[in-house]
Amino acid sequence: MKQINNYIDSVFQNHNTHLEEVISSIEENGMPSISVSPSSGKLLTMLISISGAKNVLEIGALGGYSGICLTSGFGKEGKLTSLELEEKYAELANINLSKAGFGDQVSYLTGPALQSLEKLFEDNKRFDFFFIDADKENYENYLEYCIKLAESGAIIVADNVLARGSVADQEVKPKHYSELMKKFNETVANHPQLESILIPIGDGMTISKVKK
Ligand SMILES: C[S@@+](CC[C@H](N)C(=O)[O-])C[C@H]1O[C@@H](n2cnc3c(N)ncnc32)[C@H](O)[C@@H]1O
């Protein structure tokens, strides 16, 4: 899996000085290096531009790597709402998105994402694209909120669903989130309101279209 992803990353390069700056700023600030892979980021950009999504919700901002990939897909008319637990991370993500020219198109809601999602629902907000990339324990809860907040035909993408391949390959040492991801994938695959597929890019992404 690693070899294939390195090959994809090297051939379909996602070179962008803003993305490189995000990676450096994450290291400089002692934050974890857990941004999406370059190819996963490119897939996010392409999904947004292909779908024409303009109202995007991200769960898990970190330093803004995926935020830049998402906003790069929608040009000047789109809006990104990003949910992040850590105030300090959201601040860095905001700085990085501003440097990339998207500062006036992004807003951050800090605190536990479940609380922010409930508030967005109460405020009657709706979105046409979702990216789930935060605490794995809540993936199923995030999925249900995304469906509640979805416009008809919205797309929901979730990262890390292959748990480094351990969900499918018994020779790969299980990760702490392997069982969670197995269960999440079953839920996504069989959800009556979703039409879904899993793409083995980066750490694996499910892509779902909401049937409403
Ligand atoms: C894998 S990182 C996100 C990476 C980011 N999407 C990217 O690719 O640039 C996960 C993020 O989720 C945040 N997080 C963890 N638990 C959370 C929670 N309960 N609510 C909101 N954010 C949370 C972490 O602080 C971290 O920044």
From TrEMBL:
Superkingdom of the organism of origin: Bacteria
SUPFAM superfamilies found in the cross-reference section: S-adenosyl-L-methionine-dependent methyltransferases
Pfam families assigned to the protein according to its UniProt record, in alphabetical order: Methyltransf_3
Gene Ontology molecular-function annotations: O-methyltransferase activity; S-adenosylmethionine-dependent methyltransferase activity
Keywords noted in UniProt: Methyltransferase, S-adenosyl-L-methionine, Transferase
Swiss-Prot/TrEMBL GO biological process terms: methylation
Record's keyword annotation contains Transferase: yes
PANTHER family registered for this protein in UniProt: CAFFEOYL-COA O-METHYLTRANSFERASE 3-RELATED, O-METHYLTRANSFERASE-RELATED
Name the record gives this protein: Methyltransferase
Protein source organism: Viridibacillus arvi
Higher taxonomy: Bacteria, Bacillati, Bacillota, Bacilli, Bacillales
